[in-house]
Specification:
This protein is mostly helical. It has 7 helices and no strands. Helix 3 runs antiparallel to helix 4, helix 5 packs across helix 6 and helix 6 crosses helix 7. The relative contact order is 0.10.
């Protein structure tokens, strides 16, 4: 079952259960998928690849994390809680996050393979690292690990 089919099925289930937060979040995921399909459509009907679906989910999760941070800074705990609940639903569809040790291991391997030695090589290492860890690790965490390895 594709991710889109799973989301359609869970939309029906959330309609029946009456869980408004889950329903709204799944609707926003479907809308984001539709928007992405329209943007990549060439000619006939566009079908998103698994990678494109993952991109959409990662983007939605990042938006929720940023909103939580902003609402918390603005003393709006009620809105931050709502965003956190939506983030929890979105994370159900994302691959399991990798541990800090696994992130470091992947980056160490990329640094060794690419021969990166200084901060000048950061762009090259970041590009490969984000491809390898897409959807599994936060970009800020990856960036901090790469900086620490290349500046040491």
């Amino acid at each position: 079952m594709s991710l889109k089919e799973r989301i359609d099925l869970e939309l029906k289930e959330s309609l029946k259960s009456g869980d408004k937060c889950r329903l709204n979040t799944i609707r926003s995921i479907r809308a984001a998928f539709l928007e992405k399909e329209v943007s990549v459509r060439v000619g006939g009907k566009a079908v998103l690849s698994d990678e494109q679906e993952l991109e959409v989910l990662v983007s939605l999760a990042k938006k929720r994390r940023d909103a939580i941070e902003q609402f918390t800074a603005g003393n709006r705990a009620d809105l931050a809680e709502n965003e956190a609940a939506e983030l929890k639903v979105i994370e159900e569809y994302l691959p399991a996050p990798v541990s800090d040790e696994e992130v470091e291991s992947v980056i160490r391997e990329i640094v060794a393979r690419s021969g990166a030695t200084s901060m000048k090589d950061m762009g090259k290492v970041m590009g490969e690292a984000m491809k390898a860890l897409k959807g599994k690790a936060d970009g800020t965490k990856v960036q901090n690990v790469v900086k620490s390895m290349l500046s040491a």
